[in-house]
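Researcher: Structure for this, please.
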Amino acid sequence: MKDYYQVLGVNPAASEGEIKRAYRKLALSYHPDKNPDPNAIQFFQEVNEAYDVLGDASRRTQYDYQRKNPFKQIIEATPATPHHRDPAYRRRRPSGNQPRKPSNIDLMRRYLPYVRWMTWAGLGFFMLLALDYCLPVITSKEDITAIRVYTGKRGTHTIVETSGPNAKIHAGHFVRGSRVEITYTPIFRTVLHIFEPASGQEVALKGIYGPVFFLPMILLISSSIGLFLRKNVEYAFNISITNGILILVVIYMIFVI
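Model: Predicted structure, token format:
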């Protein structure tokens, strides 16, 4: 069985665009009108034959299946001996070629271009978090307008409402009407510290940049692995989905909790 991927010089996980570009490059180089070498005609025919198969999605799926299961193809080609000589006991075979159900790899290859952006988005989102943390912080003096206490399964939570852009902040014990200094990051407005000059009370929050910062670090590692293994269809697809979930979790940690 000919290796059409080797003929075109592409990876088995290559996309349709990569296969098309490889075919055009070889066709221009080995076309009989441009290449007088006698061996170029034969190779040009092999290139056309390879592209006829790999350039068609259904034929490529069937070729990949036969390429991975060569012995199964031989067994299926061998006619089976009926158990009974009486035609009445012979089971009727379906006429025509039955369509093969796409495998998981086929589905991953089909939808990978639509989810691959999650890997780049994960890397870009981490860089934005790093920039937000490294830029100079902003300090604002605000008045506490309300204090709400909620009791749930995880204990008691205190939410401080202020007059500034950070309307609700999970903080410690402050007095309503007191003036506090709030330090937050410039991009995501993540509150880092709350300081009350009157009592000298200070609360360090840190938000996403605190103990849960391991989540953005996992996002960085996962995105880097996704870019390194981008030619492997199975790994690239699964890591892209994982990166999308991690991005949603980090966004929830920033803007909701």
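Researcher: Any notable elements?
Model: The beta strands are 138-152, 155-162, 168-170, 179-184, 191-196, 201-204. Confidence is low (pLDDT under 50) at residues 74-78, 80-86.
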